[in-house]
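One record is kept unedited as follows:
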Amino acid sequence: MKWLIKQFRRLLCWLRRIFKPKLWLHPRVPSSQNHIEQTVQGDSNQIIAHMSAATAINNLIQHFHLSPQDILALESFWKNWSQDTKLHFSPSLVIGGREQERDRIISWLQGSPEPLSLQAESPEEAIAFLAAVVHSLEDEERINVLPRAIVVNSAMAWRSLILSSDAPLILIPRFPEVQGIGQATKNEHHVFIPLGRTSSDKEHHLPRIRRDAAEKALRAMGFSRDSANKFATLARRSLSALRRKLAIAPNIQQPAWAKPQEAQVLLAPLLVSAWKDSCEGDREALARLSKMSYEMLKSHLVRWANEPDPPVRKVGDIWMIAAQEDAWRLLAKYLTNDYLQSFEDVAIDVLSELDPAFELPPEERYTASIYGKVLTRSGYIRGGIAETLALMATLSYEVSLSDNITSEDVAQTTIGLLMKKVKNNADLWASLAYQLPLLAEAAPDIFLNAVDTGLSRENPILVNLFQDRTSDTVLISSPHTGLLWALETLAWHPDYLSRAALNLARLTRLDPGGRFGNRPDTSLRDIFLCWYPNTTASLDSRLKVLDTIRRQEPEVASHLLLNLLPKHHSSVSPTHATKWRDWRLDTRTQITGEEYLKGTNAILDRLLSDAGTDAARWCSLISEIASMTDEQQESLLTHLERLEPNQFSSKERSQICDCLRRETTRHQDFPDAKWAMLTEQVQRLEQIYIHFEPDDLVDRHQWLFKYNIEWPGVQHNSWEEREKMGASQLGAMSIFTQDKWVYLE
């Protein structure tokens, strides 16, 4: 009985709220006349404010005799819209850094009743943005707003709700040709008008999501750094495409432009991906592919660019596919052999064009556009075609073409023909520099074969790509960077690591040097670094590849292995990675301390094995001893103690002694430094030094007369040590042979 009375009182409060509302979101200051009335109504406000949106909707349906399909709570709309994906969309992702629009909606909610329109990619996206803003409000305000926010799906329900002046609602019409907005606001209803791209109202256009804000929101949703980075780019281009990409049931959401009768006009743009509208060469390529005039094609594209969930975008002078992977999955099935053959011809024609800028000296190439030394096609279409080739190879087994051919076959055939043109042409290699990573990703074996050929001759043509030596200008560029990026890309995959690394080793040997920091030896070091390897190959696989480099490029291998030893301070940046292939893991594998020690120990073992009787290699190892682990220091000291000095010439023994003395002095001068070796180990170095002192008296003492002599205490200006050094110098000067004074160089 008590429960029934309680429910009856709740119903009375609701009815009072329906028929005599005074307060909702922002109560007015009560006057003395109606203070009691508003206090009573305030109680009902608290009840309705805490009612669920579903309860509010049920009450409206019953009161106005509506169908459940006629109206929908904004909260229910948000749940349906945001939870269609594998990871639910968050309000922060949908707001996406568009704070100005968010603040405008909040001000509208807090102000007097009036209409507010918002144009997004589609009306649903506009409603989703409103819902995201409401869900971002503080708890108390959100609880007050949500029960009032109603999505109206039919004109009949709309007419019933706007004519009622009983309860101020937030009405969101979701049907065409909405009428009676003035009546709605007169009856104190807020009206939110969601618009799509076909609307002529550009004043309240919702801008695109900010990439940095999207990436932050995606990270908070649980995506890895790499996935968040990739999906943030897609979110900025098209939120609808991102929803399709992450949808629980991707095939359910099919846009109008993916239907057979509409898709044909989009196939040419799909294949080139991006182009410059004002570039005549780009326009001709599109006309060849589409088999229609560019103006006619453009008229179709303008239409689609203004439709909801558009497949293409135009930003300034640049046309682009809004979401390339999404569009490929939806449209590639309509590509026929004839269309693919046309694409192959156009791709080779565009990508094999020589860049006339290379006719100028490197220091003058930044002026190429002034002298008219420019490509007839833009960098956008060249890069776009290369991207398409990589995408075709990546999705070959996921997306079937209409005829009996795979998209990977098309990509490999196209790149194979292109590499034949590149084979003996250094200028074409240079012209393709910034497309090389994508071409390598599309056809790894074909690309590596071409690089093998370019490095195998007596005068390898790929050496000509190093063009950063001849000028001091900061505006110079060098095409060798594109080749390095391509090989770094391939090194991510275990199957291509060996060939990519070996080619980088050859390039290291051939590198003439230059001003750029991008060098092949740096790429090698970053790929094999034990604590941050830029490859998914296992440690054992990496060591096998290093052994291959040791056999074929021993000097390069020695320098590389030294760089892989432990360092007190070291830094690395991720190497160039794939655009489409999932060769780099979303979550980087954590390198354990055990694996790191295993790797660096194996590298030291190889260095010790390869040192032999090469004094320079032993000196390099001695200079690295302070950074090694205790176990590694012990191993190096043991090998030095076992070395037989007679294997080396007097000059080589003197060279080794110089290195030992330098290292010993450094530790004796700074015994309290964090990097300093234990006293016992320093003493062992001293004994090894004595063991290696040359028999020739001149070679033994000439170090005393060198500039910046290494003597313990000299760096600290110790007068006592300086006196000792002077006495040693005087003693050495008394050395003579065959009754002659010896001249010490």
